[in-house]
Specification:
The complex is a heterodimer of chains A (about 110) and B (about 110). Chain A has about 110 residues and is mainly β. Chain A has strands at about 5, 10-15, 20-25, 30-35, 45-50, 55, 65-70, 75-80, 85-95, 105, 110-114. Helix content of chain A is about 0%, strand content about 55%. In chain A, strands 2, 4, 5, 6, 9, 10 and 11 form a seven-stranded mixed β-sheet that branches. In chain A, strands 1-3-8-7 form a four-stranded antiparallel β-sheet, with no helix packed on it. Chain B has about 110 residues and is mostly beta strands. In chain B, the strands form two sheets. In chain B, strands 2, 4, 5, 9, 10 and 11 form a six-stranded mixed β-sheet that branches. Chain B has a five-stranded antiparallel β-sheet with strand order 1-3-8-7-6, with no helix packed on it. The chains are: A mainly beta (about 110), B mainly beta (about 110). At the A-B interface, strand 4, strand 5 and strand 10 of A face strand 4, strand 5, strand 9 and strand 10 of B.
Chain lengths: ~110, ~110
């Protein structure tokens, strides 16, 4: 069974569009995250979400908004897509907050903005 | 600024040899984790070492942590072709603030020659 799943796997879209990426975890974890991996493979935390508490990395543009309908899901909505948003986006989850635990990553969503 | 920095950036060895990768970081940490990423795939957790631990083993993996030097090393013994991947160290800071995720380095790309 897949622990952390993301859809879609690939997303190609035009500049200016709005798109969403979905993430689901079946591990019963309390905390979920979104990371962005750029073309040089550098991974950077975007958000963490725990018990309806959202912690945002201040460098993330407000065009990015995570939405959590329940504990098992953390979706990422992106408005007015820009060329620089092209990257691989990874969802992850962990048992608890504060990074004391192992994080489990999804397979990634490869976003290409044309 | 980037927290973890792996060294070397790329490493190519013969199958059966040992591979050593190093990671340096800048701030005090709760723990340091190593992840593997195969080409085009998500990250897989390898090992977590806490700030009060100095060495940890898992199968063919050996991780050391020197908090006085703010550095860690990952040793893979008796390498196999399947070990070909990028390896990332990730740290969780001891002090809070910001999105509560891990801070990743740029990774070491390991190639095992058959």
């Amino acid at each position: 069974d897949t622990a952390v799943s993301q859809t879609p796997k690939y997303l190609v879209t035009q500049m200016g569009n709005d798109k969403s990426i979905k993430c689901e975890q079946n591990l019963g974890h309390d905390t979920m995250y979104w990371y962005k991996q750029d073309s040089k493979k550098f991974l950077k935390i975007m958000f963490s979400y725990n018990n309806k508490e959202l912690i945002i990395n201040e460098t993330v543009p407000n065009r990015f908004s995570p939405k959590s309908p329940d504990k098992a899901h953390l979706n990422l909505h992106i408005n007015s897509l820009e060329l620089g948003d092209s990257a691989v986006y990874f969802c992850a989850s962990s048992l608890a907050l504060a990074g004391q635990e192992t994080q489990y990553f999804g397979p990634g969503t490869r976003l290409l903005v044309l | 600024s980037q927290q973890g920095e792996e060294d070397p950036q790329a490493l190519s060895i013969q199958e059966g040899e040992n591979a050593t990768m190093n990671c340096s970081y800048k701030t005090s940490i709760n723990n340091l984790q190593w992840y593997r990423q195969n080409s085009g795939r998500g990250l897989v957790h390898l090992i977590l070492i806490r700030s009060n631990e100095r060495e940890k083993h898992s199968g063919r993996l050996r991780v050391t942590l020197d908090t006085s030097k703010k550095s860690s090393s990952l040793l893979i013994t008796a390498s196999r072709a399947a070990d070909t991947a990028s390896y990332f160290c990730a740290t969780h800071p001891a002090l809070g603030g910001g999105a509560d995720g891990l801070t990743f380095g740029k990774g070491t790309h390991l190639i095992i020659q058959p």
